Amino acid sequence: MALLGTLAEFQVDDILMLLSGTAKTGVLGVEGGERTGRVWVDAGRIVGAELNDHHEPADVLFELLRLADGKFAFEAGATPATPAAAEDVDAVLAHARARLAEWRDIERVIPSMASVVALRPDAADGGSLSISRDDWRTVAAIGAGGTATEIATRLGMVEFAAAKALKAVVDAGLASVAPMPAAEAGAVDASARMARVTASRSTVASTDDLVRQLSSLRSR
Questions:
Q1: By CB neighbour count within 10 A (0-12 exposed, 13-18 middle, 19+ buried), where does 59 fall?
Q2: How far apart are CA 111 and CA 179, in angstroms?
Q3: Residue 71 burial (10 A CB sphere; 0-12, 13-18, 19+)
Q4: For 115-140, how does the pLDDT look when each residue is reduced to its tens digit (9 = 90+)?
Q5: Which end of the chain is more exposed for a tag (fewer CB within 10 A), N or C?
Q6: Looking at residues 52-74, what average pLDDT do you find?
Q7: 58-62 average pLDDT score
């Protein structure tokens, strides 16, 4: 028996906290847009996670917490092929939420991985420059031109690490981000609004209903 729902009703962190509080064992599958991830719990503690190439629970939860909409399913009793050391849900969520807060700060500079990042020809005006080896790698990758996604590929970095590196170079005044097309900017704004709406939709009544449904699932 599986528990099904949508992220319009419950957020990923709310579900995991309920699974922790009710000491459930099973796998939570979450799907939204291009992201599909799974998180395994054993007696309410995280023992595995996966999303694309991510297997660290905090990395997976960071990606899942970014979803504005989607669906979830919890299958009681399921266990990972190779369980990892059990981790407390609240500790993993704390790491994921901290990264999410940093990501929101990055988005103010790099609003989308489709944003075009280019070197600034006037960067050296007014004095000399001194940058780190890591920043120089990013500058060299930007020099070939393209979107943040293309630059991330050249750097061999995942989205978060690449966007953070690009932000550092932009903040240093060495590069600039081209304005996003109106249609894409509108989509980003709509996604942010949806995330805010989603965050406010869970009610005491619906949470109580989810608890009742979880209580009816087989536990191990």
A1: buried
A2: 9
A3: middle
A4: 999 998 887 565 566 788 888 999 99
A5: N
A6: 93
A7: 96
Helices 12-21 and 204-216, packing angle to 10 deg:
50
Burial of 27 (0-12, 13-18, 19+ CB in 10 A): buried
- Of the pLDDT bands very low, low, confident and very high (cuts 50, 70, 90), residue 202 is very low
209 band by pLDDT with thresholds 50, 70 and 90? low
- In what helix (H) or strand (E) does residue 29 lie, and over which residues does it extend? strand 26-32
| Phi-psi region at 66: left, alpha or beta (left = phi > 0; alpha = psi -120 to 50) | alpha
How many residues would you count in the chain?
220
- Mean predicted lDDT score pLDDT of the chain: 84
User: What ranges in the chain are assigned the alpha helix state H?
Assistant: 12-21, 57-65, 89-107, 133-143, 148-155, 159-171, 182-199, 204-216
210 near 4, Cβ under 8 Å? no
pLDDT of residue 121: 86
Instruction: Map out the domains of the chain as residue ranges.
Output: 2-97+202-216, 113-179
What is the distance between the alpha carbons of residues 99 and 129, in angstroms, rounded to a whole number?
A: 30
* Stated pTM of the model: 0.77
Q: Please state, as a whole number, how many other Cβ atoms lie within 10 Å of the Cβ of residue 68.
A: 18
